[in-house]
Amino acid sequence: MGRVRTRGLLRGGPPSLRQRPADIVGVVGADDLVWLAVPPAAGLVMAATIWLAPLLARLVRPAPSWKPFPAAVQAGLIRPEPVEQTRFLVAATAPFVVIALWLALRRWHRWRLRSSLLATGYVVAVQVVIAAVVAACWVSQRSAHEWFADKTLLVGAGLGAGLLALAWKGWIVPKSIVGAAGRGRRLVGLGIATLFTAVWLLPAVYRTPTATLIPARLGVLFQIQFVQDEFASVLNGRTPMVDFGAQYAKLLPFLVAPVLAVLGPSVGVTTGVLAGLGLLGLIAVYGTFVVLTEDPVSALVLYIPFLALSLFTLTYIGAERINLATLAGVIPIRVLGPFVLGWLCSRQLRKGSDRARIALFMAAGLVAINNTEYGAASFVALGLALWCGHDGRSSGWGRARRLSAQAVAGAVLSGVAVCALTLLRSRSLPNLANLSNVTRVFAVEGFGMEPIQPTLGLHIIIYLTFVVALAMGVMGAVGSDDASPQARVLRGLLAYSGLLGLGAGTYWVGRSDPLALFGMFPTWGLSLAVLCWALLRQAAARPTMAPATVARWALPAAGILLAFGLMMTVVVQIPSPAAQLRRLTAEGPEIPQYAERVRFIAGRTTRGEPVAILASAGHLLARDAGVQDVSPYASEASIVFYEQMDLLLGTMSRSGASKAFVEPTWSEISAYLAQKGYRTFATDEASGLTVWQRALGGPG
Questions:
Q1: Would you put residue 596 in left (φ > 0), alpha (ψ -120 to 50) or beta?
Q2: What is the pTM of this model?
Q3: What percent of the chain has pLDDT over 70?
Q4: Mean of the pLDDT values across residues 142-168?
Q5: Which residue in 498, 536, 646, 683 has the most C-beta neighbors within 10 A?
Q6: How far is CA 642 from CA 414, 459, 535, 634, in A?
Q7: How many other C-beta atoms can be found within 10 angstroms of the C-beta atom of residue 617?
Q8: Burial class (CB in 10 A: 0-12, 13-18, 19+), 607
Q9: How far apart are CA 488 and CA 477, in angstroms?
Q10: Mean per-residue pLDDT of the chain
């Protein structure tokens, strides 16, 4: 940053209009312009969230129009949040507003600051205000859930300062890194990362489909049944996106189903497969850090804290734990594709060529189709990362046009591949009703949504992390001519992690349960690790800094180091391998009622008969009972609107199914079946199921 040697505030009025913008910026300092842009950007975004978001919600978003079950409304499960979700989407534009204002200041600034003291005071004042907001969020988070105890602040600060000292000495960021790093050293690093990851994932594996009195296991089974039934639907002859509405993953079941067909779709096998996929996704992040740092040791320094934060333990019950892997909805289902895509992106950025980019965008398209919540964000983030990781040989507009064409080609190829898959399997193209209805139930109609409470909390700190990472990546691409592989990868990953985090945040903004916030930890940890590396890399270069520069960047650097230090404190949660092995070898009873349900269904049907099973693990029950479950849902708990019942009855009619086996979760399901001409055929107390059959000539 240039130092201002003149005295007084202004000198000589506006500079010559012929003077280059870069020279004008050099007088004030590009970094100063960043901070100059923050307050107006924050004001614009806040005003937009207050005044513009309600209008956009009415004009752009579909209005809730489906008729929910009264019991679901009374239980507080139907809460549409169009304004809150729109406000978050507006807030997600904050880094782009900062960037736009920064670019405008770079181009049109016409005055020379003559006092560096005034500029430094302004920058520090802005940072102090941001620090005060962060402190308020830290205090406020206790009212929802105390994720980090106050004492961890001191420990985190010490660990962050220690990292900075080690980087300054060149022990974490070697002064001269050889890209090859030695094959043996790389294999050792990969082995250590794999071992740590496997140990952390042990609590997610259950050897037998048990349900003891331990509450953790019951909670895990409730969550796993949805993912397990999506996998089992393929074994039962269903095709996701055609005649089955997958809630979590649309393409992953096709890859997992062959494994379950060979080993059996039990809870033990399912959790083992999910843990293996989680291992793959998390190790992809380690591979990304290896590409970023060019050193396995430095990659481990970033990866192990990231791993610990991603598998943050929410609840301990003996040897059992509740974390994102045991619940499976985020790890691996949602983050597997984006994390593998991030690794592929980092490798592409290091190569610095246009080759294989269409194939990369095709992979991103498949990730987006598999899970839209995280996948759509990763597709856009990939394009931005490749744009930021430029080699300086083309203009920004030229890169944008070329990447847009490649992205469109990749998206088309991914769509063609999915259509070919469904045609080969079911002789049908994807059913838009099944694709849109699942999203509509949650995003538009508000099933399971909860408002953000409190307003200030840890989620604001996570949001600011994404904003900083994204802004640093894009502004670095605009303001830097460094085309080295290290700089390209760093800029690209900053942009990728920041935009992925903001996009994936829409999932939590919908269901804003304070205890669900840890679903943001994997993407938060990725951004924190990349930001920390950017800081450590700068410290290792030992730059000569003026006092004004130190004053300008002391608070942001301290915040990044403190956050990464807090992430390091979670490493102590690592599970005991011995305790986990004892848990895995313990016997447990079978799932209650499962065998009785298989017996009841098989006894009331003929082999291969199409039926609808509205019960937990319905497609798995159908497979073991020798029937075809034509229900497009994984569980009766997913049906809370009458329009969903209409879709179910239409599917039954087209499939020739006349019987429905119902677990009495919602009384409205039985009442609606009766209204549509179905009659109770039999009830079994042992299994808890009632079979409804369409009356001859009934309207169903």
A1: alpha
A2: 0.90
A3: 88
A4: 86
A5: 498
A6: 33, 35, 54, 17
A7: 25
A8: exposed
A9: 8
A10: 84
